[in-house]
Every structure is written in structure tokens, then in C-alpha cells.
Amino acid sequence: MLSIDAAAHSSRWRRRHPVDKAVLGFGLTLLAVALPPWPGALLVLVTALVVLLGPARVPAGRLWRAYRAPLGFCVTGAATLLVRVGGPDGALLGPAPDGALRAGELLLRSSAASLGVLVFAFTTPMSDLLPRLVRAGVPAAVVDVAVVTYRMAFLLLDSVRQVRQAQAARLGHRTRSAAWRSLGGLGATAFVRAFDRAGRLHTGLAGRGYDGTLRVLVPPTRVSRGFVGASVALLTAIVVLDAALEGRLS
User: Fold this and answer.
1) Quick check: helix, strand or coil at residue 210?
2) CB atoms inside a 10 Å sphere around CB 187
3) What is the DSSP letter of 91?
4) Residue 38 and residue 112 in one domain
5) Residue 147 falls within a domain, yes or no?
6) 92 and 142 together in one domain
7) Are both 115 and 233 inside the same structural domain?
8) Which end of the chain has the lower number of beta carbons within 10 A, N or C?
9) Do both 153 and 38 map to the same domain?
């Protein structure tokens, strides 16, 4: 199981309805995109961190391991704004005018929006979200494919881990050439195992009278008006505080 999925299953907000957490998480993401980078996106970033480390009780180390990948993409995207191709003096590359300012604004927006998405991801397991998408109007066939793919992804990752451990025990990574051979064998083994598991899954579903719909038990939960109201109040406070600070800074 992935670290972020394990954290979602053990979250103190696990039993809350996904709509509750979607209002908060995606609301923060929307504000990060809609508000000015300074101070709006910064306020969203700080708020998301406080929510994750405070009420949601996400361990800081686990949050950093999940956040560093999207943060790397944010930094890479922002770095491209520092340079420009061509210029009035005929140079091939040169510093972009106001590049540092634009890069900083993009980095603030994207990193804050990523944290908003992580608020939802760290508190909502996919197994709770996917079955409820049918009620939201998503075709059942699409949801069934997503559920099966989600389950098969973990089985495939587990198979890859077992094969890598077996290769390492047999000194399959001792030299560079051996590591390349082991990598090729790993890919071939994972491919064969994926098809084998898919075939067994199809046989098992057919033996259980599969009629085109996967029926999954979903824990009975209700949308909390108090939680949604508090989330809307928090988002409104961010907008008001942003407007007040922007007026003072200007």
C-alpha cells in the first residue's frame, strides 16, 4: 500500500463523507488559483499546512515524502520563467524580464494548490470515493474499471517488490550489467504476472455471476453541515484576509 493511501485509511477524518473533505481541500485549491499569489496563495499554503499537520494529524515526514514530488514539478515549471529564448541583442538565451517575480508567483500558486489537493488525498481513501461516484452521475462501467485498476496497481507493485527482493538476494544488482539484466527480467515477470492476475480476476468474477456492475459495501456516512459550514467559513476568512492585506500592501 502506498504511503499516502495508508495515511488516508488511518486518518481521523476517514469516517467523514468525501463531500466534507472535498469542500475544504478543493476549495483551498481553487483559492490558490483564483487569489493573487501574494498574499493569497501564501495564505492558502499556510492554511493547508496547518490543517494537514493539525486537525488532520498527518505525520510531517509522511507529508513531506508525498509533497516533494509535486513540489519538484512546481520548482521545475517555475524555473523556466527565469530565462527567455532570443532577445533584442541576438543572444540565444538570456534572463527574462521580471522572471524572478513571475517564477515566485507561479511557485506560490502551484505549491499551494498541490497542498490543497493533498488535504483531500490524505484524508479520503480511494475505496471510499470511487463507489460514490456512481451516485454523482459517473457511468458505472467507468467506476468499475477504476476500482479494478486501483486494486491491480497495488498487486502489481507488491509483485515488483517481491521480485526485486529475490533478485537482490541472488546478487542481481551487484554490477551494472547484472542490474540491467535484472531490470529486464523484472519487467518481463511483472508483465506476465499482471496478465495472470487479470485472467484469474476475470474467472473469479464470472464464477460469481458478474452482470456488469461491481457491488461494493460503502460505510454509511452523511454530509456534515457543521463541517461544511466551518470549511466555507475558513475559505471566506482567507478571501477577506487576502483583500485586507492586499489593500494595506498596495
Assistant:
1) coil
2) 12
3) -
4) yes
5) yes
6) no
7) yes
8) C
9) no
Number of domains in the chain: 2
105 and 10 in a common domain: yes
Q: Which domain holds residue 151?
A: 132-207
Cα dihedral 172, 176, 178, 179 sign = positive
- AA identity, residue 118: L
Q: Which pLDDT does position 118 carry in this prediction?
A: 92
Extract the runs of DSSP E, i.e. beta strands, from the chain. Answer: 83-85, 93-95
Is there a domain that residue 184 lies in?
yes
Q: Find where cell 509533497 sits.
A: 67
136 shares a domain with 119: no
Question: Which amino acid, 133?
Answer: L
What pLDDT sits at residue 250? 64
Percent share of the chain, pLDDT over 70: 92
- C-alpha to C-alpha distances, 188 to 133, 142, 158, 164, 170, nearest whole angstrom: 35, 28, 15, 12, 18
Sequence length of the chain is 250
Q: How far, CA to CA in Å, does 134 sit from each of 14, 147, 243?
A: 20, 12, 39
Q: Which residues pair with 76 in a beta bridge?
A: none
Residue type, 198: A
Amino acid at 115: L
**Chain segment 85-129, per-residue pLDDT in tens:** 776 666 677 777 887 888 888 999 999 999 999 999 999 888 778
The residue whose grid cell reads 513540489 is: 71
Q: Is residue 56 within 8 Å of residue 49, measured between CB atoms?
A: no
First to last CA, the chain: 48
Asked if residue 34 lies in contact with residue 70, where contact means CB atoms within 8 angstroms, the answer is: no
